[in-house]
Design a protein that fits this description.
Blueprint: H1 21-37, H2 43-48, H3 50-60, E1 67-71, H4 79-86, E2 91-96, H5 99-112, E3 117-121, E4 133-139, H6 148-157, E5 159-170, H7 182-193, H8 201-208, E6 211-218, E7 223-230
Parallel strand pairs: 1-2, 1-4, 2-3, 4-5
Antiparallel strand pairs: 5-7, 6-7
Helix pairs in contact: 6-8
């Protein structure tokens, strides 16, 4: 297991923090508003970050017939690649909380005629599924959720044993002189994405999953990929 020590300047934690119902609901509603606003302007994630997203999907090692869960799917930028791996025999179930993102994702599905790709509007921290999944992915979504550990637990509980969960996300600059830019980065991410500065994605993954490994970083370590394995 290999990890990097996350930036502790704001001491995020997933073990002792207890978010109350009003805070939770307020964060969730802000997320809906923010991502409804950006539903038509997702070019950076779809094009500029494509190599990192493609590498993340590679790490899932999907097979034809696999069932895949995507958490925070946005407008469905990962759908085509995932479906090309699982084929017509597989199934992709994606969840998002933004109605506008869901509408865009469903339009993408209709355009391609994909009958085995489903999008549901759901809060990822409380979503429930009838059947388990063989793999899961989350790209640029966990860090904006109001309770990151609960969202990670939802994913873990939804996976079969020996399943893989790959996460691509963003964080403050972890080390070096560029950390001086973190206060500006925090403000930008809070405005742009309703980013949650009080929880830590990597800590949540380490707490919930049997193994986790930080395998890729870019942009001074702010963008990163973590591969998690559920052993039992």
């Amino acid at each position: 297991m290999a990890t990097e020590t996350p930036d502790r300047e704001h001491t995020p934690t997933n073990e002792t923090r207890d978010i109350d119902d009003s805070q939770y609901a307020a964060h969730l509603e802000r997320s809906r508003t923010v991502w409804d606003r950006w539903s038509d302007y997702y070019t950076m994630s779809e094009t500029d970050l494509e190599p990192m997203r493609e590498a993340a999907i590679d790490r899932l090692e999907l097979q034809p017939g696999d069932r895949v869960l995507e958490i925070g799917c946005g407008p469905g930028v990962n759908f085509e690649r995932v479906r090309s791996e699982i084929g017509e025999q597989g199934e992709l179930v994606a969840v998002d909380y933004s109605p506008e993102m869901i509408a865009t994702a469903r339009a993408r599905i209709d355009h391609h005629g994909w009958e085995n790709v489903e999008v549901r509007r759901a809060d990822a921290t409380t979503a429930e599924f009838d059947e388990p999944f063989d793999a899961a992915i989350a790209t640029l979504s966990l860090s904006v959720m109001p309770d990151i550990r609960r969202a990670v637990e939802t994913v873990s509980q939804s996976l079969v044993p020996d399943a893989t969960f790959v996460v691509v996300d963003i964080r403050p600059v972890p080390d070096g002189p560029a950390r001086l830019l973190n206060p500006l980065l925090w403000r930008f991410l809070r405005w742009y994405a309703n980013w949650n500065p009080d929880d830590d994605v990597v800590d949540a993954l380490a707490t919930v999953f049997d193994t986790h490994e930080l395998v890729d970083t870019s942009l001074a370590g702010t963008l990163y990929t973590v591969v998690c394995e559920k052993e039992k």
